[in-house]
Amino acid sequence: MDDDECLICGHSLWDHRHYPVKWELVNDQQVSVDREMKERWEAAKDGEEKLAVLIEAGNKALEELRQVIATAIKDLARLVDDYNCLALSGCFSAQVEKTVTLLEQRFQGMDQKAVGQEQLQEVDKYLEHMKEKLRLLRNAEEQVQKETVRVVLHTSVASIDGHR
Question: Where are the domains of the chain?
Answer without folding.
Answer: 32-162
